[in-house]
Amino acid sequence: MTQIAPVPDLDGFVRPGQGAGLIDVFRRRYLLSLLVRKEVQVRYRGSVLGWMWSYVKPITQFLVFFVALGVFLQLNGSIPNYPVYLFSGLVVINLFSEAFSNGTKSLVDNAPLIKKIYLPRELFPVSSTLVAFINFLPQALVLAVVCVLTGWHPNLVQVLGILLGVLIIVLLAMGLSLFFGSINVSFRDAQNFVELILLVATWASPVLYQWTMVEKILPDWLMVIYQLNPVTAAVELLHAGFWYPTTEGQIPMPTGLWFYGLCALVTASVLLVVGQLVFRRLERRFAQDL
């Protein structure tokens, strides 16, 4: 009689192509570190200045806005210590822009790898966000040095505000990257839509101007919506950490800044969960659409 082979024990296996999403990313921290290292090395390969571009780009951007707004529109005279105010807002929006934009394109840019092997696809948006954070650090260092030279002596509350602002931006960019990155695989229009969002985000937050200018124009209910914008809260938290201490009460801090900061943290966390859910829903078509 023909013997039936015993059924193998499959307890240690999972169905191919299934995983735990962002949890798998942190389980594979070594692979994540390899992707981050690869992106950092490739970005400035063949460049004469190399890592110096991390300083040249934001400084050039700062000079353009400072001349246009600070000198020509005379904001340098109406806003105390305007260079610190401007640069502390620019480093935040640069972190958000780079993480969001590169994270949206990360799946398409890594299409050959995605089509060949299975690995947690969330690795690519997450690694792009981490690379943006690494590029943010030199800019933050320059800002901190300038602030120290202007008499900045931060206390614990100010440091916590800075960390909270950065955390909001990282979570927000990561969630939006998962959402738009997964859509961008099938509909490349998502990249153009992201560029519009970033353009609006720069001017819809007090990066280049003061929040008091907005308060004078908007009605109260619309001002609340303006302050609930997570990017606005993050920008003002960095202003509170780096800039407000040097104004000596000349400019009032936004009312309820910590409340809006915590609301922004909740909003960013919710968008991260939504982005992950949409990503997992569309993930099954990635290899086919790429």
TrEMBL record:
Gene Ontology process terms (BP): lipopolysaccharide transport
Pfam families xref list: ABC2_membrane
GO cellular component, one term: plasma membrane
The organism's place on the tree of life at top rank: Bacteria
Keyword match rRNA-binding: no
Annotated localization: Cell inner membrane; Cell membrane
Topology class, membrane: Multi-pass membrane protein
PROSITE patterns, A to Z: ABC_TM2
Similarity field: Belongs to the ABC-2 integral membrane protein family.
Protein name (Swiss-Prot/TrEMBL): Transport permease protein
Main location: membrane
Domain ABC transmembrane type-2: 49-282
Naturally occurring in which organism (per UniProt): Cryobacterium arcticum
Alphabetical keyword list: Cell inner membrane, Cell membrane, Membrane, Transmembrane, Transmembrane helix, Transport
PANTHER family found in the cross-reference section: INNER MEMBRANE TRANSPORT PERMEASE, TRANSPORT PERMEASE PROTEIN
A GO term, aspect molecular function: ABC-type transporter activity
Keyword Membrane in record: yes
Parts of the chain that traverse the membrane: 55-75, 82-100, 130-152, 159-180, 192-209, 257-279
